[in-house]
Prior knowledge:
six-stranded mixed beta sheet, binds adenosine-5'-triphosphate, 2 domains, Rossmann fold, four-stranded antiparallel beta sheet, transport, alpha/beta, 33% helix, 12 strands
Amino acid sequence: MIGASAVSVRLGGRDVVADVGLDVHRGEWLAIIGPNGAGKSTLLKAVMGLVAHRGEVTIDSRPAAALKPRARARLVAYAPQSPALPPDMSVFDYALLGRTPYIPYLGRESGHDRRVAASVLDRLDLTELGTRRVGELSGGERQRVVLARALAQEAPVLLLDEPTTALDLGHQQQVLELVDRLRRADGLTVVTTLHDLTVAGLYADSLLLMAEGRAVAAGRPAQVLTEALVGRHFDAQVKIERGPDGRPVVHLVRGGP
Ligand SMILES: Nc1ncnc2c1ncn2[C@@H]1O[C@H](COP(=O)(O)OP(=O)(O)OP(=O)(O)O)[C@@H](O)[C@H]1O
């Protein structure tokens, strides 16, 4: 559903993404992990066509570069890490922006568009905030509103850059479960960067570990989340156990590295 081969991005005179590929099929969830500055967000931006890059990105087997912005927006929704939000816009109107690819030029949103936005806000526990100004929200509320806009887009591919960093435990679970349900029910394809390695291993089918711009490991969570790989690339001392479902659980070791 979404593929990238030999993608490189040069910023500030160096390759911050170097020769990275990925291949995510319909209904799969890929989590991109790696230390700060590894190039995770930049790789997502390259896939979105938001940053100049070498290599090829395909969406639904079509070269992404050939897609017009409206066609691309119907195929891929992207929630950036911390976008600038228009402070005076209401939460509802901001979520409604996700419907832009379906609204005719010079036209208005339909009743269906408003219902989709309302339903997404409801599922993210945001209905009561619908009339609030976006500029007045807490960090976690803002993060869920950004996600609401992306989900309102109803695109078959969802790219999420650190979607849960500002969320409390309950809202993290709510967001991850919602995304998981959507991919199971509707075959949504999900690519997300995630800092919480246990959470990444719990929800994703496969992980891509990046370090210094390169893909240094890829595979099933248990293949990538090993004490050796995490220790080396995060410069951290960790203990990794298997949870009840066999997925890896990553613990920090006090006193390390
Ligand atoms: N416009 C820019 N000019 C120069 N360097 C940049 C630019 N944007 C990003 N970088 C650098 O590219 C590298 C990769 O950044 P990126 O945001 O992709 O990392 P990341 O893996 O998402 O990190 P984090 O976990 O901290 O969010 C970093 O070293 C960053 O400083």
